[in-house]
Amino acid sequence: MTSFAVPFFAFRDFPAGINREVEQALVRAAASQHYILGEEVEAFEQELATALGTGMAIGVGNGYDALVVAMKSAGIGPGDEVIVPANTFIATVNAVVQAGAIPVLAEPDPYTCNLTAGAAAAVLTKKTKAIIPVHLYGQACEMADFMQLAQKHNFILIEDFAQAQGASYGGQSVGSFGKINATSFYPTKNLGALGDGGAVVTSDAALAAFARMYRNYGQEQKYHNKIVGINSRLDTLQAAVLRVKLRYLNQLNSERQRLAQVYQNELQGIVGLILPVTAPACTHVYHIFNIRTSQRDKLQTWLAAQGIQTAIHYPVPVHLQEAYAFLGYQPGSFPVAEELAATSLSLPLFPGMTAAEQQQVISSIHTFFKVHG
Ligand SMILES: *Cc1c(COP(=O)(O)O)cnc(C)c1O
Questions:
Q1: Cα of 325 to ligand 1 centre, how many Å?
Q2: Keywords of this protein's UniProt record, alphabetized (predicted)?
Q3: Is residue 10 included in any domain, yes or no?
Q4: CATH number at residue 276
Q5: Which domain holds residue 306?
Q6: Which of 7, 205, 231, 364 has the greatest count of CB atoms below 10 A from its CB?
Q7: In the prediction, which pLDDT does 110 show?
Q8: How remote is the CA of residue 91 from the centroid of ligand 1, in Å?
Q9: Whose alpha carbon is nearest atom 2 of ligand 1?
């Protein structure tokens, strides 16, 4: 068999013709000469809200800003504690600090890698104002338990669904459970722009009105400022791109799920290799296909030697990041998060990946475990 390079991620024309549609949308938006907010952004916001089954969507500059705007809108600030998983992309935690609140970390589930209501309940205090479940790798968190906990203890649920657009729990879309929720349109996300972008979604009209003002200098009407806001608007050209991509989101996610199933079928049964586990009632849209092995570093080097690119999400858990030393956690504070950081490897998976590329990844992994198993 001839071997060739396999990228971790690539932008392909999938489904065929989508690139041309995106280009046409860009040309149309550029020709409109309306470059800030306007009809294109409003149309995308409505289409996104409809797709998610939420009342309103507010386009912002990126996913991090979406989290900050969501928290500000929900009234989270100094003195408040916000529970976040110990194994998330750093943006989730940085946003809590930016809002002036205190991040409180909690252990993920060792099988799904997601935060559970049980783990969050263990670190709940009188100061807990919010919990941010992150639908990590594209798998929905078990939301019924979070909804119950939120009701019982009267805190705010904010979903970080940056990695999981189109995933669902119990048939309901992620991004529609929390009081106000945040997502990212970073180019490699399941719903990706051709640059930065993000959105806040909510069915609460008052929070939506606040978010809409806050992202645009605190004004409803130009030069009339009700609150001290920021500038974090979804770019109009990106909104035009996202309107096209949104129409194909289900198809793009189905292709990710098909590729994931091929990996599941062909990598099952290897001793020492743990494949992704999806919880009942949850769907997984495979933003990341995460495998685990105690030989992670060796396997990554082996694959790299054959031109197969992989990634690690994430090599250092939040509590062991230098930036978060001030939280006072230690090695050993979150054994599950630490174990995931030491054993996780993300395999190439993206819409448009060819069967030949995927077979090369699969056969290289089989050979590795024959040699090192
Ligand atoms: C990508 C991501 C973000 C932040 O998105 P940006 O648009 O890059 O700011 C936040 N949370 C999670 C879980 C992410 O994966």
A1: 22
A2: Aminotransferase, Pyridoxal phosphate, Transferase
A3: no
A4: 3.90.1150.10
A5: 250-372
A6: 364
A7: 96
A8: 6
A9: 162
Q: Kindly give, in sequence order, each residue whose CB lies less than 8 Å from that of residue 359, ignoring residues fewer than 6 positions away.
A: none
Residue pair 56/45 in contact by the 8 Å Cβ criterion: yes
Domain C-terminal end among 247, 263, 292: 247
What is the domain count for the chain?
2
Residue-wise pLDDT tens digits, 334-368: 999 999 999 999 999 999 999 999 999 999 999 99
In the reported structure, the alpha carbon of residue 62 is separated from the centroid of ligand 1 by a whole-number distance in angstroms of 8
Ligand 1 atom 4: residue of nearest CA: 63
Q: Is the pLDDT of residue 2 over 80?
A: no
- 199-257 confidence digits (pLDDT tens): 999 999 999 999 999 999 999 889 999 999 999 999 999 999 999 999 999 999 999 99
Above pLDDT 70, what percent of the chain? 99
Q: What are the CB-based long-range contacts (under 8 Å, 24+) for 214-219? A: 214/69, 214/72, 214/73, 215/58, 215/59, 215/60, 215/61, 215/65, 215/69, 216/37
Q: What is the CA(42)–ligand 1 centre distance, in A?
A: 22
Residues lining ligand 1, CB < 6 A?
62-64, 88-89, 91-92, 134, 160, 162-163, 184, 186, 196, 198
Last residue of a domain, one of 201, 216, 247: 247
Partners of 58 in the β-ladder: 200
Q: 218 and 262 share a domain? A: no
Residue 9, in any domain of the structure:
no
